[in-house]
Automatic annotation (TrEMBL):
Topology in membrane: Single-pass membrane protein
Keyword Plastid belongs to the record: no
Gene for this chain: LOC110489884
UniProt xrefs under PANTHER family: PROTEIN DISULFIDE-ISOMERASE TMX3 (PTHR46426:SF1)
Name of the featured protein: protein disulfide-isomerase
InterPro entries: PDI_TMX3, Thioredoxin-like_sf, Thioredoxin_domain
Alphabetized SUPFAM superfamilies for the sequence: Thioredoxin-like (SSF52833)
Length: 429
């Protein structure tokens, strides 16, 4: 078994190191960044040049991460050991932990993930300058303030799990600006949206769930990947608009002014275009629109009347929370069947739009063959039935002809035959 390592920008200089049965024992000494691929996978082939650039970038920056790839079909046992379920799969192997990369497949995002996960789970901020630098660099910043405590142990354990999503830092209270006042020490604080919020165990529940919720800005530019990440956080309502400045401004105001009321249940944002919404509701919605999506069961809510004021928007949100708003969609059996039919229709329409000739060949040829087969079966049954009827009719006619052709015996001949029979009878005296 071999683990391909990119040792230079030029591919012919790249070197190999063995992935033997002792490979797992080496993971406490190295950090391996592995791309599990299949030779037949088109997405894997598309990722190949990006993955090579990742290896070159990490190599040139002096990173300890060793970048490589493995044919998951050739070494299925090793792939199964690391929990590979599909291709391509990117994993960073660090000690006895395997971190899955599920972000965009771009060089910068993949390199950033490696640099974040390969380092310590919690990074120290020893000075005000370093703290200010990180505040400018990160839109969302988690910092633990204080000394050793049970809360710090929970923070470190949580950071080791959620480092795949964001950075985690620790600092002393001295690095804080004068405008920031903590209610107590130790504390876990998140800095975002020009403000800061402190974790309260009694109000916010578990630390991991609080971080998982707060790692997003209060108002987002939403796309397909963001929706996927939000769905992983659990049950959450997403309120977003599609391309209308008035609606966007209203939602931004609600996200800021009503944070204490809706932050626990809602994520706010906007999405460009209406393609995703059309796919979600399996229909057409006008642009602009306001929609609330429940990521846990794929239900969605549309306002019954136009939303033009802040009060109307708040009323709409409250109606969803109290159950008075009508839910649509969902993940029931009927919706699943409807989804399959909608996806099939969308696929066929997209093929015909992009290449009408190819669409006619892919769908017209099979339909033509099936039509010919059905026609052949139907005509064959009809011919067989007609032949049987003709045979039966022919047999009936032959029987009638045989009856008519039988010779008729005259009365005189019958008397002669009768006498002969009587003469042949024995006489007893």
């Amino acid at each position: 078994r071999t683990f391909t390592t990119y040792g230079s920008i030029k591919p012919h200089i790249s070197k190999l190191f063995p992935l033997s049965v002792h490979f797992c024992d080496k993971l406490d000494k190295i950090i391996a960044y592995c791309h599990f691929y299949a030779p037949w996978c088109g997405y894997c082939k598309k990722l190949e040049p990006v993955w090579y650039d990742v290896g070159a970038e990490l190599k040139s920056s002096g990173s300890p991460v060793r970048v490589g790839k493995m044919d998951g079909t050739a070494y299925s046992g090793m792939s199964s050991e690391f929990g590979v379920r599909g291709y391509p799969t990117i994993k960073l192997l660090k000690g006895d932990l395997a971190y899955n990369y599920k972000g965009p497949r771009t060089k910068d995002d993949i390199v950033e993930f490696a640099n974040r996960v390969a380092g310590p789970a919690v990074r120290a901020l020893p000075s005000k300058q370093m703290f200010d630098h990180m505040m400018k660099r990160h839109d969302v910043l988690f910092v633990y303030f204080g000394g050793e405590s049970p809360l710090k142990e929970k923070y470190i354990d949580m950071a080791a799990e959620l480092i795949v999503y964001t950075y985690f830092f620790s600092a002393s209270e001295d690095v804080l600006p004068e405008s920031v006042t903590l209610p107590e020490l130790p504390s876990v604080v998140v800095f975002k949206d020009g403000a800061y919020f402190t974790y309260d165990e009694y109000v916010d529940g578990g630390l991991s769930s609080w971080v998982n919720k707060e790692r997003f800005q209060s108002y987002l530019q939403i796309d397909g990947f963001t929706l996927y990440e939000l769905g992983e956080t659990g049950t959450v309502y997403i309120l977003y608009s599609t391309n209308l400045l008035t609606s966007t401004t209203l939602i931004q105001r609600v996200a800021k002014e009503y944070r204490e009321h809706f932050n626990r249940d809602f994520q706010f944002g906007h999405m460009d275009g209406n393609d995703y919404i059309n796919s979600l509701i399996m229909g057409e919605v006008s642009v602009p629109s306001i929609i609330i999506l429940n990521t846990s069961n794929e239900q969605y809510f549309l306002p019954s009347e136009p939303v033009e004021t802040l009060e109307q928007l708040v009323h709409f949100i409250n109606s969803v929370l109290d159950g008075s708003a009508q839910a649509q969609g969902g993940d029931g059996m009927f919706q699943r069947v409807k989804r399959v039919a909608f996806d099939a229709k969308s696929t066929i329409m997209s093929v015909f739009r992009s290449s009408p000739v190819l669409g006619c060949f892919l769908f017209g040829l099979p339909l033509g063959v099936i039509s010919l087969m059905c026609y052949g079966i139907c005509t064959a049954e009809s011919d067989d039935g007609q032949e049987d009827m003709e045979l039966m009719k022919r047999d009936d006619e032959e029987e009638e002809d045989d009856e008519e052709d039988e010779p008729r015996q005259a009365p005189g001949e019958l008397e002669v035959l009768q006498r002969r029979k009587e003469g042949n009878k024995p006489h007893f005296s």
